[in-house]
Amino acid sequence: MKFRRKQRENVDINLASLIDVVFILLLFFVVTTTFTRETQLRVDLPEAVSGSPAEDSQAKQLDIAISADGIFSVNNQLLEKNDLAGLMDALQKASGGDTSQPLSISADGKTQHQAVITAMDAAGKLGFSHLRMTTVEAAKQP
């Protein structure tokens, strides 16, 4: 007895709907992705031949960074107002009223002198006594 074999049907996968699903997933990930914006200032410190390294203490310290444009940040938090009152408010909040903490001023080498004086004035008015200016060591001259 001879049996007839049925011809196999070709099975095709419809990729059109798969492409639609992948495209929708791509759109979903693009829309839901959040981008973080860094709020640190880029500061190129001035050079100094003399100076002493900072003490490595575990005590909490404050840092005022001043960009070349005169923009202030206290402990890597940009200030909304770049004036004496705004800087004093930010220092008061960051220190919690403790003026015995060391205060470091990191100003860009091209910062106007007035911005550095404003930072020093704010520290002086609040009663900070441990003030330090941050520099990098100058290259040795042959």
From TrEMBL:
- List the subcellular locations: Cell membrane
Cross-referenced InterPro entries: ExbD
A Gene Ontology cellular component where this protein is annotated is: plasma membrane
The record's GO molecular-function terms, alphabetically, read:
transmembrane transporter activity
Main localization of the protein described in the UniProt heading: membrane
Single GO biological process annotation from the record? protein transport
Transmembrane portions of the chain: 12-31
**Entry keyword Transport:** yes
- Keyword list, A-Z: Cell membrane, Membrane, Protein transport, Transmembrane, Transmembrane helix, Transport
As for membrane topology, the entry says: Single-pass membrane protein; Single-pass type II membrane protein
Q: Which Pfam families match?
A: ExbD
Indicate whether Membrane appears among the record's keywords. yes
Q: Which family is this sequence assigned to?
A: Belongs to the ExbD/TolR family.
Protein name, please?
Biopolymer transporter ExbD
Species the sequence originates in: Pseudomonas spelaei
According to the entry, what is the taxonomic lineage of the organism?
A: Bacteria, Pseudomonadati, Pseudomonadota, Gammaproteobacteria, Pseudomonadales
